[in-house]
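Lab notebook, bench 4. The sequencing result for the construct came back, and we need a structural model before the next group meeting so we can plan mutations. Quick request posted to the team channel:

Model the 3D structure of this chain.
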Amino acid sequence: MLGERIKRARVAAGLNQRELAEAAGVSAMAISKYERGENTPSSTVLLALAKALEVRTEYFFRETAMELEEIEFRKHPELPEKTKHRVLADAHEQLERWAELDHVMPGSWATTFQAPSELPQHVNSYDEVEGVAEKVREAWHLGFDPIPDLVETVEAHGITVLMSKYAEAKTFDGLAGTMNGHSVVVVGAELPGDRQRFTLAHELGHLMLKGRLSENLSEEDACHRFAGAFLVPKRAVLRALGKSRQWLEPQELWLLKRTYGLSMGAWTFRARDLGIINQSTMSQLWQLLKLNGWDKREPDPQYPKEKSRRFKRYVYRALAENIIGESKAAELLSISVSALHAERQLERAGDNNQ
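Done. Here's the predicted structure in token form:
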């Protein structure tokens, strides 16, 4: 078990055995034997490994082993295998902490995802996808206004959101899976907020549309349509843009992005999909976006990043109710006890993403 923990932490850190050996001051052969369970590291070596891998020593002795199932990465042509392994290892580690918290504080992870019963059994067109998104909003009592905290909204309905620092912005969008019946979505912690939100809404689309789409529809395209419609429903788009336009001003798109958390580029798709602009106008807009480099990075300031705070709230609740002590709380939050002290005194607000 100890060897598997060392290997998993090494993969999450993006290190090979030789690199970890150099960082910890041991031989690569020693690392290999530790991971295979042939040798056990001394307490001194274990401390060096923890420092090199940026984990607390308690991590190595955690008995809970979580495995994601039904894993689906958002398709990206440049996503390297190393990044996949790092993101998955990080997700497993975060899920283990969730499960451990739920063990000491039953009910903290009780909610499970269920699609609203009002959704249609069969979806035969992309326009009908719009209707699914609106029904979800209605079932969740969201109205037609912007959703200020998307992570909090989806977590309240049984979807565990993990923010991974290893998800590289240029090559990773997100992944979804299940663990012990829980729906899990992993999003890059360093992605711009609008991209995080679209990824979350896209993965929500997969959950809502699963088993409902006719064979002539692309699931990815349908989930893109769902994401746009969920973040900015048709009524809100028409209210903002009108029924027919010959052009959309970049400043207008930027201001709408600030209001709804949907990227400038995605707004052009919403306008095209709803017949507000034609394909020719959309092509011209995208030429302008590309000319300014806004197809890769939209103008600053970037939309604020989303945060997952649910896990941290429950840890501090368990601490406040004397269910756990400071050492356990620090371990669950994956921070030092001194950092926990600072957070408890609000000397630092605590911006780690759990």
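The CA atoms of residues 67 and 233 lie 36 Å apart.
Will bring this to the meeting.
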